[in-house]
Design goal:
Helix content: 25-40%
Shape: globular
Strand content: 15-25%
Order of helices and strands: EHEHEEHEHEHHEE
CATH topology: Rossmann fold
CATH class: Alpha Beta
Number of strands: 8
Oligomer: single chain
Number of domains: 1
CATH architecture: 3-Layer(aba) Sandwich
Distance between the termini: 47 Å
CATH superfamily: P-loop containing nucleotide triphosphate hydrolases
Radius of gyration: 16 Å
Length: 198
């Protein structure tokens, strides 16, 4: 409910597609598909960026089955939107009034997770996400941005850090775009580390 609405209470509904998402549902070149698949398997830290409604969450859902089953994955969301595969070692943690997203990210470091997933980075938790990624915890999250360059600038702004930390932590930024015909597509891939896009 939205008690702040001036003309009375409002209600926002977020619905989930019943269909399963895979990379086949996104337009991309064979080279892009190879880069993305290899980056997930090699535990690279990925940022999925795009404007609202472009399919960022759906794209992350398509990436989850690519994660090796041996990994210990910690997923932090507010609200819960990602669909976890039936296989794999996933732990889901939800944001509550007593424990915000940033506190969950800090706690994840003590949980010895191989990979930390955040549904969307939009606040000071960005700093802890970057610190975790730069010290050996692979990361995956989404962020609102119009292109990959804007995504990196916004991540730096949210984290209130220098550019060097972003470059140390992030391997790839993947831009998702919704085409005029409704099809989702990978429009950009920006690599920040040598070898991330080979």
């Amino acid at each position: 409910m939205l008690p702040q609405a001036s003309a009375g209470p409002g209600l926002v509904l977020r619905t989930h597609h019943h269909r399963e998402w895979s990379l086949d549902r996104f337009e991309m070149t064979d080279e892009q598909r190879g880069i993305i698949t290899r980056a997930v398997i090699e535990q690279r830290t990925l940022i999925v960026s795009g404007i609202m409604g472009c399919g960022k969450t759906s794209f992350i859902n398509a990436l989850l089955p690519l994660i090796p089953e041996r990994e210990r994955i910690l997923l932090i969301e507010d609200p819960p939107e990602l669909r976890l595969p039936d296989t794999g070692n996933f732990i889901r943690r939800r944001v509550t009034p007593d424990m915000d997203l940033r506190q969950h990210v800090i706690a994840a470091l003590r949980a010895a997770a191989d990979r930390i997933l955040i549904g969307e980075v939009r606040g000071p938790e960005a700093a802890d996400f970057l610190e975790a990624a730069s010290t050996g915890h692979a990361g995956l999250c989404s962020i609102h941005a119009g292109d990959t360059a804007e995504a990196l600038k916004r991540l730096q702004r949210l984290a209130k850090c220098d550019r060097e930390l972003v470059q140390e932590a992030v391997d790839l930024v993947i831009q998702i775009q919704r085409m005029p015909n409704g099809q989702r597509a990978v429009s950009q891939i920006q690599a920040l580390k040598e070898g991330a896009a080979l």
